[in-house]
């Protein structure tokens, strides 16, 4: 009995001993796990702090880059007036009332300036352009289109700071944009306002001289655009020109519009390469499906351009086309907006032949047209 009890006590001691070892090992494992977890947490926090700091540095770097781009862009903004002021600059108080002051954007180093037609005037007219250095030059309007409210002015000056053209077809909603112009004369010249792209491809109706004017394919922005900003630049964060500020709805806050720059790129390229632009002319006045609803809500078109009027002295006279027809294609290019048709023709020259695909009363046919020279 004595030996059996002693043996049992020894077995208990051994069991307690092994249990103590197992518990100790478990404690060690738990502590090690917690230490490892804490190390991971500390490592994660350190990495997060690092990441946040790097992100802030990158954001700061990007912000500085944007600011530098905008500051460079300002140098290419000019003042435009139809009347000459007696001093050396047209930037005077109340200049927008006294002189019809607007803005413009230098687009080449040899003096081509893009602005609004209602600011610079019609083709062959003159205006006065004040540069960043406050010197004023006489400008000649070499091209203008009242339907899209754009004009190109030429001054006799070289080695100018100019804006690089961006891609107005590659814009997205909520993208940051900046409007630059001369809203209220000397005190507020070269004003920069920041906003976003609120909408694209807008069509609006404007009443001018008791007539309704329809502007299509506009960029809508909430960047502030005031009197005198017309003709100024709408730029992206890289400082590239994406639009020309054109109109503002006076009875609504935070709604401004700009004409996309891509429509005039063919003209600018021809001026740069050839030193002139001979404008081809199709001789129609038409509307897309967005604009036609303002004119006649009974007219429904899914695609193409509704022919509203044919010029009596244009190249379409005596051809098989009439008011109410729908143009769906020019050559191999489908067109759904009047600006798309204009842009295509800007690539052409007078006397070039084009093919128009026409829809009328359920049938489709093609006509050949020889483009005329626009006077």
Which characteristics define this entry?
single chain; 375 residues; alpha+beta; Thrombin, subunit H; 6-stranded antiparallel beta barrel; 6 helices; 20 strands; elongated
What is the number of E strands? Answer: 20
- What topology, given as strand order, has the largest sheet? 1-2-3-6-5-4
Mean pLDDT: 83
Please name the fourth-level CATH homologous superfamily of the largest domain.
PDZ domain
> Rounded to an integer, what's the Rg over CA atoms?
34 Å
Per CATH, the architecture of the largest domain is: Roll
What is the CATH third-level topology name of the largest domain?
Pdz3 Domain
Structural class category: alpha+beta
- H-E order: HEHEEHEEEEEEEEEHEEHEEEHEEE
Could you tell me how far the N terminus lies from the C terminus, measured between alpha carbons in angstroms?
Answer: 131 Å
From the spread of the alpha carbons, the general shape counts as: elongated
How would you characterize the overall build of this protein?
The protein folds into 4 domains: 1-70; 74-154, Beta Barrel (Thrombin, subunit H), CATH 2.40.10.10; 176-268, Thrombin, subunit H (Beta Barrel); 278-373, PDZ domain (Pdz3 Domain, Roll), CATH 2.30.42. It starts with a helix and ends with a strand. With 375 residues, the protein is of the alpha+beta class. The strands form 4 sheets. A 6-stranded antiparallel barrel has the order 1-2-3-6-5-4. It has a 6-stranded antiparallel barrel with strand order 7-8-9-12-11-10. Strands 14, 15, 16, 17, 18 and 19 form a 6-stranded antiparallel β-sheet that branches. The protein contains 6 helices and 20 strands. It is elongated and about 125 Å long. Residues 86-99 have low confidence and may be disordered. Strand 5 and strand 6 (150-154) form a beta hairpin. Helix content is 29%, strand content 33%.
């Amino acid at each position: 009995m004595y030996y059996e009890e002693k043996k049992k006590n020894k077995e208990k001691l051994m069991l307690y001993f092994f249990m103590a070892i197992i518990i100790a090992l478990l404690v060690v494992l738990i502590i090690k796990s917690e230490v490892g977890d804490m190390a991971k947490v500390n490592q994660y926090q350190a990495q997060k702090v690092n990441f946040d700091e790097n992100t802030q540095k990158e954001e700061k770097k990007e912000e500085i880059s944007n600011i530098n781009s905008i500051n460079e862009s300002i140098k290419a903004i000019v003042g435009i007036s139809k009347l000459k002021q007696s001093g050396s600059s047209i930037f005077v108080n109340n200049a927008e009332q006294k002189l019809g002051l607007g803005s413009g954007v230098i687009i080449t180093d040899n003096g081509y300036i893009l602005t609004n037609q209602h600011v610079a005037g019609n083709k062959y007219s003159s205006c006065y352009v004040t540069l960043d250095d406050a010197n004023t030059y006489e400008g000649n309007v070499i091209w203008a289109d009242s339907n899209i409210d754009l004009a190109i002015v030429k001054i006799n000056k070289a080695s100018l700071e100019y804006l690089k053209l961006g891609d107005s077809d590659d814009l997205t909603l909520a993208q940051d944009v900046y409007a630059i112009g001369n809203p209220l004369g000397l005190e507020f010249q070269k004003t920069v306002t920041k906003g976003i792209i609120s909408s694209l491809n807008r069509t609006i109706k404007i009443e001018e001289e008791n007539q309704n004017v329809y502007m299509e394919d506009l960029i809508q922005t909430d960047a502030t655009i005031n009197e005198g900003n017309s003709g100024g630049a709408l730029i992206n964060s890289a400082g590239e020109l994406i639009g020309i500020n054109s109109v503002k709805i006076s009875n609504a806050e935070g709604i401004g519009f700009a004409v996309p720059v891509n429509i005039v790129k063919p003209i600018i390229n021809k001026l740069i390469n050839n030193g002139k632009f001979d404008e081809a002319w199709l001789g129609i006045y038409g509307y897309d499906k967005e604009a036609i609803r303002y004119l006649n809500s009974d007219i429904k078109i899914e695609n193409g351009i509704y022919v509203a009027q044919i010029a009596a002295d244009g190249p379409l006279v005596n051809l098989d086309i009439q008011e109410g027809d729908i143009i769906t294609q020019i050559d191999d290019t489908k067109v759904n907006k009047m600006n798309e048709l204009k842009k295509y023709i800007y690539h052409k020259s007078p006397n070039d032949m084009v093919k128009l695909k026409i829809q009328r009363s359920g049938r489709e046919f093609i006509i050949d047209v020889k483009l005329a020279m626009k006077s």
